[in-house]
Each structure stands twice: as structure tokens, then as C-alpha cells.
UniProtKB/TrEMBL annotation:
It comes from Seriola lalandi dorsalis. Its main location: membrane. It is found in: Membrane. One of its GO terms (biological process) is lipid homeostasis. The chain crosses the membrane at residues 6-29, 50-69, 89-107, 114-131, 170-193, 213-232. This is TLC domain containing 4b. The lineage of its organism: Eukaryota, Metazoa, Chordata, Craniata, Vertebrata.
Length: 270
């Protein structure tokens, strides 16, 4: 891993920690009086979700820029120039490390072994990108799923502030969450897998080696199975709200990213 990527990982780790402990409380107090009435455990999760949203917007929008304008990565999805992708992945790795520390420090209220395994697996997978510069197009493509995270977090904000589920903003956010989740996690599957299959048997694919090949394909299959399950739950919940049938609350699961209604995923990082 080059010095630049290490600096970005460390910088994003510190930046997200400062956002969690300093910026989020001040901003949240200014935006809504309900923040100050939350119990300590909810305050911690609120700040965590705000950081999650900021990370998702940074990484997700950067992903779109790379997809649209980085010709080197698009020309060679396996071994193209990974400079910009490595920068984006380094930001995500810094976020994952920050989130692991947060989970460890609040294990009694937020700890979940699934999220720890998810984060460690994501760090392992992205380690290939940072250290070997492989699969830049596919690593970047997967991070687009983070664009659904802000809507998931906003749903939690509405819930903890006790907005009724029939409220116009809650319904609008729920519909937007379902639509965006479908677009960035489900609708892209055919295009993504077409690009994957196109690399099979090529010299670039063989050059990866068995370890990278297995890590890449197996993780993609697992993530897409989870995304399909979560999409079903989200769509069912959205349908019940729109038709006025109520029903139990729908949780997104763990991600990606991702995440059970609490998203320490955060998606992350799919």
C-alpha cells in the first residue's frame, strides 16, 4: 500500500471520528430539538448514522464520477489504473476502521459479531485493491450501493423522533429508499455480472490468481443474495405503507453495504 492510501485511510478514520464526536452533536442540536431528548444510547446511534450518511454520500458520488469519467478503469476493469478507485476505497477503509472502534467501545449496546465479520471481510477484500491495484472497476461498482444508505438512515431518524409512519415525509422517504435501493443494488446486477463473465478465461483474469478470483466471485454472490432478500423486505414494507395495511416494521438487514434497521454496514461496502 502506498503512502498516499495509508494517509487517506488514517485521515478518514480521524475525520469520521471528529464528525461523530464533535460535528454531529452540534449540527443535530441545531437542526432538531428532538436530538437533545434522546437517551444516551440513541444519541450514539444517531451520531453514528449521521457519519454513515456522510460517508455514503462521499463514496457513492465519487463512484459515479469514476464510472462516468475514469476511462482507464472502464477500459480495463481488472487491471486498469486504480488511482482514483484506491482513493475511494481508502476512504471506505478508514470508515470501516472507525466503525469497528465505535462498535468495540459500545459493545454492550451496539455490539454485533455479524457487523464485525462484515467489516473485517470488507477490509480483507479491499486490501486487494489497495495493495495490488486489482479489480478497480468492480470494487468501484460495488461501492455505488452506498447511495441507498442515506435513505435507510433517514428512516431511522424519523422513527426515533416518533414521526407517524403515515406522515408524508416518512412515506416519501420510504418510497425513495425502495426505488434507490432497487436501482443501485438490484437493477445493476445484470450489467455487473455481464462484465464479470466477460473477464472469464482472459489473460487478465488468469493473472489475478486463485485467491483473488475466489474472494471476488464468492463475495459478490453472497452480497447479491443478501441484497435480493433485503429488497424483498423493503418492497413488502413499502407496499404495506402505500396501501395502508400497516404490518410489522421492515428492516433492511446488515450490509452491505447495507444492515438490520441499524446500518453499520454499512453497506459497506459492498
Amino acid at each position: 500500500m502506498e503512502t498516499r492510501e495509508l494517509t487517506v485511510v488514517a485521515g478518514s478514520f480521524v475525520g469520521f471520528q471528529l464528525l461523530f464526536s464533535v460535528a454531529s452533536p452540534r449540527l443535530s442540536y441545531a437542526l432538531t430539538p428532538g436530538y437533545g431528548r434522546l437517551p444516551p444510547t440513541k444519541l450514539t446511534e444517531w451520531n453514528s448514522r449521521l457519519v454513515s450518511t456522510v460517508h455514503a454520500l462521499i463514496v457513492g458520488l465519487f463512484c459515479l464520477y469514476i464510472l462516468w469519467f475514469d476511462d482507464a478503469v472502464n477500459a480495463n476493469p481488472v487491471w486498469g489504473d486504480p488511482s482514483l478507485v484506491k482513493l475511494n476505497v481508502a476512504i471506505t477503509c478508514g470508515y470501516l476502521l472507525y466503525d469497528l472502534v465505535l462498535l468495540a467501545c459500545n459493545w454492550s449496546t451496539m455490539g454485533d459479531s455479524f457487523f464485525v465479520c462484515h467489516h473485517l471481510a470488507a477490509l480483507y477484500a479491499y486490501g486487494y485493491v489497495l495493495t495490488r491495484g486489482v479489480l478497480p472497476y468492480f470494487a468501484n461498482f460495488r461501492l455505488i450501493s452506498e447511495l441507498s444508505t442515506p435513505f435507510v438512515n433517514q428512516r431511522w431518524f424519523f422513527e426515533v423522533l416518533k414521526y407517524p409512519r403515515s406522515h408524508r415525509m416518512v412515506v416519501s422517504n420510504g418510497v425513495a429508499m425502495a426505488v434507490v435501493f432497487f436501482l443501485v443494488r438490484i437493477a445493476v446486477m445484470p450489467s455487473y455480472w455481464a462484465s464479470v463473465f466477460a473477464t472469464f478465461g482472459t489473460p487478465d483474469f488468469e493473472r489475478l490468481g486463485l485467491g483473488a478470483q475466489v474472494a471476488w466471485i464468492s463475495s459478490c454472490i453472497a452480497l447479491d443474495i443478501l441484497n435480493t432478500i433485503w429488497m424483498y423486505k423493503i418492497a413488502r414494507g413499502c407496499y404495506k405503507v402505500l396501501t395502508g395495511r400497516g404490518g410489522r416494521k421492515v428492516k433492511e438487514g446488515a450490509e452491505a453495504s447495507s444492515s438490520s434497521d441499524r446500518k453499520y454496514v454499512n453497506n459497506h461496502t459492498d
